[in-house]
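Researcher: Re-running this chain for the archive, since the previous output was lost when a drive failed. Same request as before.
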Amino acid sequence: MCGLFGGYSTSAMSGDLIKVVEKLGFVSSLRGIDSTGLIAIKEVKAKKKKKKFLPPFRTASRKEVINPISFFQNPATRSMIQGNDVAALIGHCRWATIGNVNYDNSHPIQVGPIIGVHNGTINTFKKEATDNNTTDSAIFYRHIAEDGVDAAINKVGYTGAYAIVFYDERDNTITFARNKERTLYFMYSKCKRHLVWASEYSMLTLVNNHTMISFEPPKLLDTDQVLTLDLEESKWRTRPVKKPAYTGYLPDFKKKEEELKVHVPPLKVVGPHKQIVCAHDHKDCGTKETAGELLARKKEELRRKREEANKKVKEGDESLNIFYYKGWEESFISMPEAKRRLNTGCTYCGHKSGPFDQAFWHGQDHYLCEEHFDDPNVMEFFGSNKKFVPSECY
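Model: Regenerated structure tokens:
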């Protein structure tokens, strides 16, 4: 867990706006004090451009193995962010997870024309980072510089967490991106000319209560989107992360759904005793059961089938070929993760349902079992507006 913070203005950042970023650095120390770093993107004034090919922006950066409060009190830091030419500031405070606490592993990280910060842990790069005595963040930025941001994100995998902010010297852009494992909030001024960001909503609202600038409520950056700010034109561009087409095995969802159902032949009720026979009048599938007896038998068959399937899952039997479980998020999660969540038990009675039992989720780790979902007293406790998501497995 690390802290990201920063600010930008369509014109040069005022002293008040720089103080807002500084205060965001102070409160971000709650997310990490192992090291602190800052990137200052400064506009090159026209009178300083002695040659035409001089870029319109230049960067200055500092990082130290100290906490954010001491970092901003350092005269070298204060000198770097003073002046009327600062267009943007990108800050980071580190909570070390992969890699030692030292200067080289601090942020910002520069690889060629890319310089940026990262919050999160990418387990995909853990072995490579350990073998090379570096960090997962450094490897991530190497991939961004060499292969582009989309290819680098695709290498993160499903177990990685990231929120990134980086500056590209080639086209003078600041890029923001995150996945669902990490948050990043934007807070615009009411005049729309100033922007600040931080890893937590509460940090922005706290600082907003201690500033002279009037800001709007913070907004969460969308996941799996690449948001780019062109500093020269002060224009934003957003697009989804480009993901390659999946060429591996996909389970037949419809087939799995059919396998889990209890197949009942078409029936009809005849005679004064409500006897049931095949709706097609086939003699070989006629029955003497009443409607109630048939329903009870089918429920018992379904219960036994679920018990057998749950037992196989518990024993690690792979013959079921079940890959996914759908719970609260209404998206597919792995079966090991599903079993972990189901082990928390029913919110009302504590009964631990199996993956094949019908569960009704009302939170990421909270659900009601099928028995108490039908109980009107239980439902009255939750209220009519409570959202429940029925489970499914494929």
